[in-house]
Design a protein that fits this description.
By secondary structure, this protein is α+β, with helices and mostly antiparallel strands. The chain has one domain (3-106). The protein is 46% helix and 14% strand. The chain is built from four helices and four strands. It has helices at residues 10-14, 18-41, 70-73, 89-106, and strands at residues 3-7, 45-49, 78-80, 86-88. The strands form two sheets. Strands 1-2 form a two-stranded parallel sheet. A two-stranded antiparallel ribbon has the order 3-4. A hairpin with a 5-residue loop joins strand 3 (78-80) and strand 4 (86-88). The longest helix is centred in the first third of the chain and has 24 residues, at 18-41. The radius of gyration is 15 Å and the shape is flat. It binds zinc ion. Zinc ion binds next to loops.
Length: 112
């Protein structure tokens, strides 16, 4: 079964100014609604990963919260921390989001 896992947190935090932020929130919300209804029509599973889920900070190898964070962390593309695993920022986040999506599905907290 194909599953979607969507993270919609940090995009919000990155926009500058209140107007830009609300426009972005609105269009992102519409995009997610469309994605959700498409997934539903196609009989797919749709899991919304919490906006506070630390997909970037979480080490996908050992689960430690040692990855880059905050505004300074945005510049960090690759990182290596305590456990020795080296991560590409996006690849690591993708693994974490997919895993969290599967956890939500298993916990019955996703639309299937
Ligand atoms: Zn680690």
């Amino acid at each position: 079964m194909v599953r979607f896992a969507v993270e919609f947190d940090q995009l919000r935090g990155l926009s500058r100014g209140r107007a830009a932020k609300s426009v972005q929130d609105a269009s992102l919300g519409r995009f997610l609604d469309r994605l959700e209804s498409k997934a539903r029509r196609a009989g797919r599973t749709f899991a919304k990963v919490d906006r506070y889920f630390p997909s970037t900070r979480l080490c996908s190898a050992c689960g430690a919260l040692t990855g880059p964070q905050g505004l300074d962390g945005l510049k960090v593309r690759r990182w290596r921390r305590g456990c020795g695993a080296e991560h590409d920022r996006d690849a690591n986040a993708e693994i974490n989001i997919r895993r969290e999506g599967q956890r939500l599905v298993a916990a019955g907290q996703a639309d299937t």
